[in-house]
Design a protein that fits this description.
Elements lengths: L2 H21 L5 H24 L12 H13 L10 H6 L7 H12 L15 H20 L3 H17 L1 H15 L3 H42 L1
Length: 229
């Protein structure tokens, strides 16, 4: 992949993670306005996967904002029980565990990257939106390394993205998405869950391919320098 193509593709991944994170907050008019952009990103980045799994590319915004808010509360907030808990620990540790060992590990990931949970964020660090935003941040750092011409930096942040998906977000997204699909009353949340699952699972493969490409390029560059020396 040429450098410009790589930058454009990473910008697309960057935007998709940000938009998906926003889509899992309480819906408002700003969310409705951004759905067109999210749908466009999904079409460009994982249309084949969506088609193979019979998932409509359009996330769906015909349910109406008030119906979406009611569905959001029942799925993710309660007050008595959550139909689709949006926390990684529930799926990684079982038995309805919230704020478990896996949650603490997520917080370690954030802090090791120079981040902490915003004081205004009143939910657990392993909330679906927070983990999607963290992937968005890691891609930002990777793009920053690209701008600086640091192949080592790009490889570092790609490895972090792959590991975070393997041990956290990618490890529970399927169970979470299935929970949403089985319990949601709106087309919006059913399609959003399916599309998020398809994107994250596709992205894990994408990151591996990008890593292989960058590592091969670095190895070839080192080999060429050795020959020239």
């Amino acid at each position: 992949m040429k450098t410009q193509e790589f930058i454009e593709y990473e910008q697309l991944r960057f935007d998709t993670y940000r938009l998906l994170a926003n889509a899992f907050y309480l819906p408002d008019e700003c969310l409705i306005d951004s759905l067109g952009t999210l749908e466009k990103c999904m079409e460009e980045i994982c249309e084949k996967s969506l088609e193979q799994n019979n998932i409509p590319v359009g996330i769906g915004k015909k349910d109406g904002i008030e119906l979406m808010k009611v569905d959001y509360a029942k799925l993710f907030v309660g007050p008595f029980s959550l139909l689709a808990p949006p926390y990684g620990s529930v799926y990684l540790e079982g038995e309805g565990v919230v704020m478990g060992n896996s949650t603490a590990d997520v917080q370690k990931w954030y802090r090791a990257s120079g981040l902490d949970v915003d004081a205004q964020f009143k939910d657990a660090p392993d909330h679906i939106a927070a983990e999607l935003e963290f992937m968005h941040f890691l891609i930002f750092k990777e793009m920053e390394a690209t701008d600086q011409g640091s192949a080592e930096g790009v490889i570092k942040y790609l490895k972090m993205q792959r590991s975070f998906l393997e041990y956290h977000l990618g490890a529970w997204i399927s169970d979470f998405a299935d929970n949403v699909v089985n319990n949601a009353q709106t087309t919006y949340y059913r399609n959003l869950a399916r599309a998020t699952k398809a994107f994250v699972m596709d992205d894990l493969q994408t990151i591996t391919a990008l890593l292989d490409s960058w590592q091969s390029e670095v190895e070839n560059s080192v080999g060429l320098e050795a020959v020239q020396a």
